[in-house]
Amino acid sequence: MWLFSIIILLVSSYIIGLFPIKDPSMYKYLSTLLRTFIEVFMIPIIYLKFRNKYKELLRYITNRVINIISIYSIIIFIFLANYYGFNANKPIKSYDVFNSLLFVLIITLSYAIIFIAASSVNKNVELEYKLKNIDAQIELQKQNYKTLNKSIENYYAFKHDMRHHLLAIKSMIDTKKYIAASEYFTKFSKTEICENIDMLCKNFTVDSILKYYINIAKESNIEFKTKMNIPEDINIDALDLSVVIGNCVENAIEACNKEIDEIEKYINIKSEIKGFNLIIRINNSFNGQVIEKDKIIRTSKKSKEHGIGLSNVRKIVEKYNGFFDVKYTDSEFQVNIIMNFS
Fold first, then answer.
1. CB 35 within 8 A of CB 43
2. Which residues contact 62 (CB under 8 A, 6 or more apart)?
3. Average pLDDT for 39-51
4. How far apart are CA 56 and CA 53, in angstroms?
5. How many CA atoms lie within 13 Å of 19's alpha carbon, on the beta-carbon side?
6. Which of 335, 277, 289, 333 is nearest to 311 (CA)?
């Protein structure tokens, strides 16, 4: 922005210098007035046009690099001011304007190179992140297919042996051994039919993710309740759904596992459709310890991926012109998400 201000200063001084103004105070007044008018008109336009891209780039630039750029800007500004000796009471000559603009152009190009490099890094990071999530989604679907195949195999085995079991039960009933028949049926229902997880969501991607994490939650004795209403044909990219649901549930499991009290570990996830909005709410128990840095919330000092995960969720929600909010008490963590799919 300081480069833009210098350019405006040079241009306004040059324009005023074209007119025969002998009074230095009048020259200074008109030059300042013209410069202020141009800045008031142009700076908001530039800010609105480039602010999102600029903020996006800053997410992937370290504080050290930002400090170096800031120091570089100050040094260049001091050098430019001392070298050319600008005087508001004295018109700037045309060759001074040309040299100054050339100097500013060189500086601008150097900044452009920095931000092009940062943009390239940004794209590479996003690509790596998408590939990572695609791999994770494929792995989840593989797990779901394995569960499905196991269910099919058990079904055929069950169908093959069904006739023999029915004959055995019929024989017991015919001989009036009702208690034995009841015990046999009870034992049969527990051993022959494998335990399956019912469909949790009509959307295959979300269903696969939830089934995967439910098994992980069971291993940690976490009560996992779901009430999901997400249609298969919803106008939200499957990869985006995977990132949103996967990150939130994974973070919830991690938070539950850090609790000291092993009795009340739980995760509740609900979703519903209202108009063209997908509303998701996730509640989970946690130990009440929250770390907040640069507007990124984490429930663990060790796991940096926790905060990164929620940051990526927020980014995807913004992509769908949605709403992302985090609330917490001393014992419960809540994530509220609204995504527009119109």
1. no
2. none
3. 72
4. 5
5. 12
6. 335
Q: Which residue has 């051994």 as its token pair?
A: 177
Q: What are 131-159's pLDDT values in tens digits?
A: 776 777 667 666 666 665 665 566 556 56
**Residue 288: which region, alpha, beta or left (left: phi > 0; alpha: psi -120 to 50)?**
left
Contact between 172 and 186 under an 8 Å Cβ cutoff? The reply is: no
Q: What is the CATH number of domain 204-340?
A: 3.30.565.10
Would you state the structure tokens that stand for residue 75, as one six-digit string? 């040094």
Would you list the domain boundaries of the chain? Answer: 2-129, 136-191, 204-340
Is the pTM higher than 0.70? The answer reads no
136 Ramachandran zone, left/alpha/beta (phi>0; psi -120 to 50): alpha
What strand order describes the sheet that includes 266-274? 223-227, 266-274, 277-285, 332-340, 323-328
What is the C-alpha separation between 284 and 47, in angstroms, rounded? 40
Three-state DSSP state, 271: strand
Q: What residues does 76 pair with on adjacent strands? A: none
Closest CA to 245 of 208, 215, 206: 206
Q: Is 176 left (phi over 0), alpha (psi -120 to 50) or beta?
A: left
d(CA 91, CA 271): 67
| Rounded Cα–Cα distance for residues 15 and 308 (Å) | 50
∠21-26-30 over CA atoms, to 5°? 95
